[in-house]
Write a structure and sequence with these properties.
By secondary structure, this protein is an alpha+beta fold. The protein is built from two helices and six strands. It is globular and about 40 Å long. The protein starts with 14 loop residues before the first strand and ends with a strand.
Length: about 120
């Protein structure tokens, strides 16, 4: 059952996780994650994030953004340690259920996980 179909989706973690996809199609990534988690994304635009990106912010601090691993004006990737991952998925304050759903997809790699201070 998608995350949003439940009351709170489990205990929320004070973690920031960076996931990556090895495909360069934001619309496909948005559909995949939206269908998996049962959440809606808002299209946004920011030169800081490499142009177009998608964002979801839940009422419980839970947030997901989907953006490109873009090359800046100096020729450096936004996440240079992950050059094979064209699409980046930033997840903040996710429940263990959300992380389990993302990990179960198989094609999304967990690239980095940090405790939010």
């Amino acid at each position: 059952m998608p995350y949003s179909a439940r009351n709170n989706g489990g205990e929320m973690s004070d973690r920031f996780n960076l996931h990556g996809l090895r495909r360069d199609n934001l619309d496909e990534a948005k559909r995949l994650i939206s269908d998996t988690l049962g959440v809606e994304f808002t299209p946004k635009e920011s030169s800081f994030r490499g142009g177009a990106y998608f964002s979801h912010r839940g009422s419980d601090r839970f947030e997901v953004t989907i953006e490109r691993n873009f090359t800046d004006d100096e020729g450096i990737l936004s996440e240079p340690e992950f050059p094979l991952h064209s699409t980046l998925i930033f997840v903040s304050y996710a429940t263990s259920e959300v992380e389990g759903l993302l990990n179960a997809l198989g094609e999304i790699d967990l690239l980095r996980s940090e405790v939010i201070q």
